[in-house]
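ligand=biotin
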Amino acid sequence: KANLSTQWLGKEIIYFSEVDSTQRVAHELAKNGVPHGTVVITDEQTEGKGRLGRTWFSEKGKGIWMSFILRPSFAYHQALQITLFTSVVLANTLKKLYQRNFLIKWPNDIYINGKKVSGILTEMHGEQDQIHYMIIGIGINTHQITFPENLKEIATSIQQETGYIPKRIELIQHFFTEFEQDYSRFEGEGFMPFYKQYNDALYGKGRRIQLKQVNQQIEGTIMCIDSNGYLILQEDDGKEAKVVSGDIFF
Ligand code: BTN
């Protein structure tokens, strides 16, 4: 059992040496009523889930694969911003611990030296006016020295980029402490207090990108995000486009 200094986040930690997906287990537990802040963590996932139906490569002992349950008191639109909020907290934590320039690729990938080191998957359960629970899933590549061929060019690990061998418990402790502190502010004031920090860490500012959405594709230059968390792109005709969702391709 980890000895954490937090009030609610990680007070209950459920550990597996192997599981299909901590995200799936967390849903199961949440349905059965486990408290706000319960964490599910594993050494290995056989069916790790990524965003947009992708799989998440979760090799044994090479990373932090965890999901935690929130029972938020806030409204739906704020629930959409929690992913962005979580990225800020995670980037801050990694910067503090490893003294490198961790950036955020909108909406919620953590990058270092142009490669992805961590991803966040947020899922919610409930209706527009009442969220029953949210599951925040975080994958952090800590120890990989090599990646499979298809990931080599796009993924990296903390060890690979910094030479530092992260201690899982230390990283989690710092992240939970920071998340809990900032979360009460987020509950009260929303994303507003955090969007400047997000912009400071925004990856690819000034670069021309393609934004792929379900039904369309936009091209433009990354400007910033606004206080709601929307991405502002400048299109070639000079007009600004505000986007709520999608995937960035450089
Ligand atoms: C992404 O970038 O696509 C999000 C990746 C999220 C991966 C984590 S690992 C722990 C948790 N369990 C899962 O199955 N997925 C998330």
